[in-house]
Amino acid sequence: NADTVSPPIMAVDGGYDWDGRWNHVRKFLERPGPFAHPDFEPCTESLQFLLEMCKILVIGAGGLGCELLKNLALSGFRLIHVVDMDTIDISNLNRQFLFRPKDVGRPKAEVAADFINNRIPGCKVVPHYKKIQDFDESFYRQFHIIVCGLDSIIARRWMNGMLISLLSYEDGVLDPSSIIPLIDGGTEGFKGNSRVILPGMTACIDCTLELYPPQINFPMCTIASMPRLPEHCIEYARILLWPKEKPFGETSLDGDNPEHIQWVFKKSIERAAEFHITGVTYRLTQGVVKRIIPAVASTNAVIAAACSLEVFKIASSAYIPLNNYLVFNDVDGLYTYTFEAERKENCSACSQVPQNLQFPPSAKLQEVLEYLMENASLQMKSPAITTTLEGKNKTLYLQVFNFTEHTHFFYLGLSDGQELAVADVTTPQTVLFKLNFTT
Ligand SMILES: [Zn+2]
């Protein structure tokens, strides 16, 4: 048994590494195995690298973040930074297990870092109670691997764009040393996914944007005439009865107003009784109105474990990383599936290909804006458009000064082949488009 004969690791800083401390990790790094990477050579240096050199950034200290920090710290990673802009809410405590009732109101990143540092000797988690957008590329460049445990697609896309902006190309050839692998985890109720992104080499977040469709709603005919679920009854009260009966005048429905929810709840029960449907509760009513998807601790645990494993595989080079997308679902039984998401040739984030916009010369700027926001592979949120006209930069559209949206291209001075630079919250860089007139 090879692992029993390896020498004890020298205590590097104050005797943190007691005898046998990393035996569980050494089994993977110091002996060969059938699942090891073909180029893998068992050695002791890999563990030293994990313990002393490898710098990991964890984005998010919530449901996934707590699990990620715990897993990484117990796997031997010690130089970990964590970024989170949130404070702890009492409703987090059932699954975000690094937090206690006394911590409510404090920044998640700071409490999580303190907990890990106190519990796991030698670990140096550095917290950042900030937004990811508060840091520039020099901050991100210091890390070997970045792991995301986010619940926001905009933040994911921004992070993805940041790592793509760090890539350097020489004569069109990607410099591999400029790649920082991004491991992304996501969960929603009983469903989750884990993926490995090598920016510039494998499919990025924006390459597969169609996988994140906008909120799916129940078909209106079901809500209006043939409800089957308690949710259908609640949607009936919310969408059809509220604007018709105007219980609070012209006020729009506020999910945080208990009187509003109470009204929808009462109407939903009446509707449910009519169709012999059970299960309408106040809590469900609030959940449907506020679009709450319950967070499930076990889903977070599985996805964070899958992500941490990928970090370990890439950092140690001992095993072949996931290629490249794992889906997990335990709504009914248990299901996992892995597939290779493919790069999109004209991805607006990673392809380096100018994006074409096809519009007739008679179109208005409004049509461009709608396209940028509604196209499934762009899904921008509040695009700002600038261009260069007669050698001068000109802002065509900003949401706060939206007087140009109904203006035709002709009056804006836009011609065929015009380059438009679009800035949006989904990316740290501007995206270049080329306006092609159709006839
Ligand atoms: Zn891409």
TrEMBL record:
Keywords, ordered alphabetically: ATP-binding, Ligase, Nucleotide-binding, Ubl conjugation pathway
Presence of the UniProt keyword Ubl conjugation in the record: no
Residue ranges the record marks as coiled coil: none
Any single GO CC term annotated in Swiss-Prot or TrEMBL for this entry: nucleus
Function: Catalytic subunit of the dimeric E1 enzyme, which activates NEDD8.
Pathway: Protein modification; protein neddylation
PANTHER family: NEDD8-ACTIVATING ENZYME E1 CATALYTIC SUBUNIT, UBIQUITIN-ACTIVATING ENZYME E1
Catalytically driven reaction(s): ATP + [NEDD8 protein] + [E1 NEDD8-activating enzyme]-L-cysteine = AMP + diphosphate + [E1 NEDD8-activating enzyme]-S-[NEDD8 protein]-yl-L-cysteine
EC number(s) on file: 6.2.1.64
Family annotation (SMART domains): E2_bind
Keyword Ligase found: yes
Biological classification of the source: Eukaryota, Metazoa, Chordata, Craniata, Vertebrata
Active site: 221 (glycyl thioester intermediate)
Family: Belongs to the ubiquitin-activating E1 family. UBA3 subfamily.
Record protein name field: NEDD8-activating enzyme E1 catalytic subunit
One of the GO BP terms on file: protein neddylation
Record organism: Gouania willdenowi (Blunt-snouted clingfish)
Domain of life: Eukaryota
